[in-house]
Specification:
single chain; three-stranded antiparallel beta sheet; two-stranded antiparallel sheet; 11 helices; 9 strands; EC 2.3.1.225; Palmitoyltrfase_DHHC; Palmitoyltransferase
């Protein structure tokens, strides 16, 4: 009976956590809906409404895609078979377990390793992790090319939706900037006492304050992710250097500026601004700098980009102030 009570309590806590995880999303939705009402119906800035609605459509479209595009998980060939799983779990010698994973990984396109040089294995999902794949403790699954878990979209950002997340940040910055610049003239009128109506005064003040506040935080976050894209890094890789079979290499996936952008947005520039999936590949394997250099000797003589000293340090998980990291 006590066991049943504990299971019921655990289930209730999980249910509460799932409900509460939508609170940040609800806050954003309410703020956006209020900003739409205040801008369109209270201020009635007719001249600006065409451009406003164009930005608003792309802003809400990318936000929707960031929330509801499910994280992509490794396919079945990376999972241990029933027989291999039983052999692995029944084996008590760590060195034999390690060798078993090495033998299994030989059949897979896996080139990254743990800090100790072992094959990256998830003991929760019972699979060999593809390159750049990590386990998200919030989503309780392994996510391909995991970047971070974002509470503001209540979703894990990875291979399947990183493009949408970047577009959401870009259109959010544009949305806040557009509101702030177009409302500023009304703020001047309010300051001079030329703006009639108490309600209009409230909406002008609050619109300008909220737009500026979100703009500052979003432009920092967007700038940080632009830097990551230019280096072809994820947030996790920026704080913990990937380890390859040859050793740690912080620029292991850096293919050059243009190719790095294409790794997220694809080759067709027509789709770069539209929230439609265009990232190349399947998320299980990625081109690496070392392979590019072997195919193109000119890259081997290329001067590496300058990095900050901070890039040489391995940061503990959750140390980023810009994103919530939950990788294990």
């Amino acid at each position: 009976m006590r066991r049943g009570w504990k299971m019921a309590l655990s289930g209730g806590l999980r249910c509460c956590r799932r409900v509460l995880s939508w609170v940040p999303v609800l806050v954003i939705v309410l703020v956006v809906l209020w900003s739409y009402y205040a801008y369109v119906f209270e201020l009635c800035l007719v001249i600006y409404l065409i451009f406003y609605h164009a930005i608003f459509v792309f802003f809400t479209w990318t936000y929707w895609k960031s929330i509801f595009t499910l994280p992509q998980q490794p396919n079945q060939k990376f999972h241990l078979s029933y027989t291999d799983k039983e052999r692995y779990e029944n084996e008590e010698r760590p060195e034999v377990q390690k060798q078993m994973l090495v033998d299994m990984a030989k059949k897979l396109p896996v080139y990254t390793r743990t800090g100790s040089g072992a094959v990256r294995f998830c003991d929760r999902c019972h699979l060999i992790k593809p390159d750049r794949c990590h386990h998200c403790s919030v989503c309780a699954m392994c996510v391909l090319k995991m970047d971070h878990h974002c509470p503001w979209v209540n979703n894990c950002i990875g291979f399947s939706n990183y493009k949408f997340f970047l577009q959401f940040l870009a259109y959010s910055v544009l949305y806040c900037l557009y509101i702030a610049t177009t409302v500023f003239s009304y703020f001047i009128k309010y300051w001079r006492g030329e703006l009639p109506g108490v309600r209009s005064k409230f909406h002008v003040l609050f619109l300008l304050f909220v737009a500026c506040m979100f703009f500052v935080s979003l432009v920092i976050l967007f700038g940080y992710h632009c830097w990551l894209v230019s280096r072809n890094k994820t947030t996790l890789e920026a704080f913990c250097t990937p380890v390859f079979m040859s050793g740690p290499e912080k620029n292991g996936f850096n293919l050059g500026f243009v190719k790095n952008i294409q790794q997220v947005f694809g080759d067709n520039k027509k789709f770069w601004l539209i929230p439609i999936g265009s990232s190349p590949g399947d998320g299980h394997s990625f081109p690496m700098r070392s392979m590019n250099e072997s195919q193109n000797p000119l890259l081997a003589n290329e001067e590496p980009w300058e990095e900050n000293e901070d890039d040489n340090r391995d940061y503990p998980e959750g140390s980023s102030s810009l994103a919530v990291e939950t990788e294990t």
